[in-house]
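Re: [help] complex structure
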Amino acid sequence: MFKNYFKIAIAVLRRRKFFTFISLFGISLTLTIVIVLASFIDHLVSAGYPDTQRDRELYVNSLRLMSSKQGYSNTGPASFYFLNTYVSKLKTPERMAIGSIYVATNTYVNNKKLVINLKYTNDEYWNVLSYYFLEGKAFNNTQLVNGEKVAVISEETRDNYFGKGVSAAGKYLETDNVQYRVIGVVKNVPVTRVFAYGDIYVPYTLSKSDLNNKQLTGMYTAILQAKDKDDLPKIREEYNQMISRMPKTDKEFDLIYSYADTYLESFTRMMPFSSPGNSGITIFYAIIAIFFLLFLLLPTLNLVNINISRIMERSSEIGVRKAFGASSKTLVYQFITENLILTFIGCLVGIVLSFLIIQVINNSDLISHADLKINLNVLFYSLLATLIFGLLSGVYPAWRMSRMQVVHALKAQ
Amino acid sequence: MIRLQNIEKVYRTETVETLALNSISLDVPKGEFLSIMGPSGCGKSTLLNIMGLLDAPSKGGIQIDAQATGNLSDKQLAQFRNQKIGFIFQSYHLINDLKVLDNVELPLLYRSSTAKERKQLATEVLEKVGLSNRVKHFPTQLSGGQKQRVAIARAIVGRPEIILADEPTGNLDSAMGNEIMEILINLNRQEGTTIVMVTHDEQMARKTHRLVRLFDGSQVQ
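Output below.
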């Protein structure tokens, strides 16, 4: 039966080449956008260089201070003081990486201004994240404690500052009038991996800001790494208890909200639809799903129209099939199957197009150091989108056609 | 084999009501070759469609092989047509996107049969209608007579007890028409298939066992 459907689907596609082209163009363009978007979302959400162990990590991305009387709040990254005084005392995490949000610094190479994004980190940062060192190594605890002016730089910074491919280890780099000795060069990190991105990484002890300032919000984030992913709920619990026990020293803000979240939650937590106790991740997923459905809606309606006119041309065939024993249900299956074949061909074209577009994005400066790819996750969601697209655009025309009276169908030729 | 009781068919639009069939009662015994004649628009094809369960009467009942068909569901009607009835149309109604063999296999797709069985049965009937050398052709590569022979092969491949033919020779020249008629007569004689044929051709009608004439939706003979 399926072979017959397949034969006829291919024959119909070949018979009306212009219609086929228009249909396939619409389908493949739509699915290309879906696949590229899926790849981008996967790039944002899934583990990737150098943050490869997200399944056993929790993130402290923000802290919200609220005034219960006045009703206003202050949300932002945590201070070094908060992380060092409270979070670092947690017992369940195996390690804690502390990193600042990056700060733009300026330097000049051959009279040309170069902006270098600087990140302050602790020494554990290099054990939590799996940077690939092209040269040298990271700074250690002694160098951190002693406040040595050492730096790990990215490959791009090395190439821009010292020359492409020129060894940088042991050389000096000056930015914002501070001279650092380069002790390591790491492979570039995409700008979208905000916990790990930087052009230059230096010990937090070199920070010009007062690390002992007892303000709770500041410019630091943390990654809590568990021994095992089964420990993550315990870390959350311990973190929540720690927050509830924190002394309320601030007169203005009497409520403190902060969470050890999964990677994605740490971002949705900052969205307007989140609330204390609710990371907003469910709403985020719903928004993404609705966005994709709405995005698919317009091309679906187009394809529905094209399908209806294609199917109506085949009313004689519908009449004959019904006359010889096909029930309406069987015909619905047949036309949906045919439409799925068409959308899967469109999907294959879409995958090839997406692959090319992703190569272009990765090799352009559109997203700095992007490493978008079509992996199994992306492929799965793309096939799911294809299936939904194929069903949405196939069901209505197939149902309408199946309701056609045999006699009318046969006369319509 | 086929029993029509007081069949009425009315076509209604918002303003007009047209009586296409008026109280037709007809018995077609098993093994009979019956022809239906009448002027254009007298309701011949409507009657045939109702006999073939392709259209529902406005009033009256149809029994096929002693079974009332009035309350059958869409699925049951489909099964009934598939098992009991084969259709031959004036304009062949072959599926141009499918090869001859696939066209003939069509009724078997809606039964539980394997691809091998379908191919074997279709090949056998194509041999019977003299088209064994055209199995891989597409309908557009065939003459009118050949197309009608493919349509006959498709109608008989499932071994139905009834063949309903709507002007099967209407689009053919007389030589081709005679050939098709011969096939139908042989089918009736050798297999005992009950055949009801709508025709305009008096000469063809005379070759059948019985002739029913319609005029303005009523049976006049």
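The mean pLDDT of chain A is 90.
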